Amino acid sequence: MAKAEENVYTLASLREHLIRQEDTIIYGLIERAKFPSNSNTYDDKYAQIPGFSGSLVEFVVKNAEDVQAKAGRYTNPKEHPFFPENLPPSNVPSYPFSQFLHPGPASININKSIWKMYFQDLLPLLATSGDDGNYAQTAAADLSLLQAISSRIHYGKFVAEVKFRDAPQDYEPLIRAKDREGVMKLLTFTDVEETVRKRVEKKATVFGQEVSLDSDNDGNGKRKFDPTVASRLYKNWMIPLTKEIEVEYLLRRLD
Amino acid sequence: MAKAEENVYTLASLREHLIRQEDTIIYGLIERAKFPSNSNTYDDKYAQIPGFSGSLVEFVVKNAEDVQAKAGRYTNPKEHPFFPENLPPSNVPSYPFSQFLHPGPASININKSIWKMYFQDLLPLLATSGDDGNYAQTAAADLSLLQAISSRIHYGKFVAEVKFRDAPQDYEPLIRAKDREGVMKLLTFTDVEETVRKRVEKKATVFGQEVSLDSDNDGNGKRKFDPTVASRLYKNWMIPLTKEIEVEYLLRRLD
């Protein structure tokens, strides 16, 4: 089932998946916003973990990735680790994931940019100031949200491959000319981006509301987070980073 | 802030927290339902992990708990590991979590029952049959949901402590007489349970809907999971297990 589905990627099937990923990202935003900023989670000097040097969030993400690598996560070409160095091999029998991408640019990983954006730009908008001592839980919430954002952005490789296959005659001259701006222009649809941004904000409003049995209160009461954070995340960072992936992928598509 | 809050537990403040935990559990249900059953995740013989004997989900949960233990998760009396044996110590400075519970029964941990319920009862209702190869991601979704369910059920200890402090004259004779049924009767409010069940189903309907910019489609389209699974989870297992915790706690409250 999965294999057949993956072999017939179309813009429509990818779009459906991207829309579902929005929900995962919004749940992740809400769950991280449940905790205050908990700055000790991000302080290199706070924890003293034998054999590890770095912040608690680095410790939790790096170790979670090691465990998930052993459980086969990164054998799926849709998954990208934040700490790819020295990742242990998979210990599960190999699964026939579709090899849809062009081999060279399939390895593009911009998680370093995503990591920086997450901690410098997103987190200060999302988490209210405070400290409740739940640093491990906070780091686990960061891990889930980082993985959801990374997965969504790296999906750009699949989108780029489909766009290329749909119109190689339009892309090939630009790629050969290394015309980065031309490629960017060809894959940019401002009205689609605006639709995504609006839909994400609406979803954040619906999923972030406090639901009670008294219907009159729904949507009017307290919110679990500011829904404009979700649309700003998409507008300012996720859509630009996705397009960056698409351009990088396409520029290497004929290698 | 956190400390002051924890020192003034009341039924109202606990109730607010329990209502927020419903949302976390529903997001967790939706995120697990995103994957098919992926039965290899639960097969003791599927993965060959050096130094580990068990299923992938056991591997992922046990290792995640080890990492989170080092990051201090289980120093919070609200957190309960599924694999408490040989858990490593915390490597973070101790945080002044409120010591609100009575020392003896504070250590009650019924995660073995929760684990059994999750895999035997809940998962077959939640996950559609199929295999997409994403076993590590599936186990990570199980981990988040198991932790959310466990946290909610073990909150029963805090509820029991508040109920005891509010009416020791009602509980003490029953506790001294080891009158399990009497204690159960005293803390059972059928109308409250029914309200919880209804609210959970409504939340599952709202959070599980597919939201689009075309408002007419909202709530009428495809759903991400069957919202009655959430209410059945509460009715058949979460509420009974929470009351089991409350009774166990109270029976040891005068030790």
Automatic annotation (TrEMBL), chains A, B:
Pathway: Metabolic intermediate biosynthesis; prephenate biosynthesis; prephenate from chorismate: step 1/1. The keyword Isomerase applies. It catalyses: chorismate = prephenate. GO terms for biological process: amino acid biosynthetic process; aromatic amino acid family biosynthetic process; chorismate metabolic process; prephenate(2-) biosynthetic process. Residues 135-246 form the Chorismate mutase domain. It is an enzyme of class 5 (isomerase). One of its GO terms (cellular component) is cytoplasm. Its EC number is 5.4.99.5. SUPFAM superfamilies: Chorismate mutase II (SSF48600). Keywords: Amino-acid biosynthesis, Aromatic amino acid biosynthesis, Isomerase. GO terms for molecular function: chorismate mutase activity; protein homodimerization activity. PANTHER family: CHORISMATE MUTASE. This is Chorismate mutase.
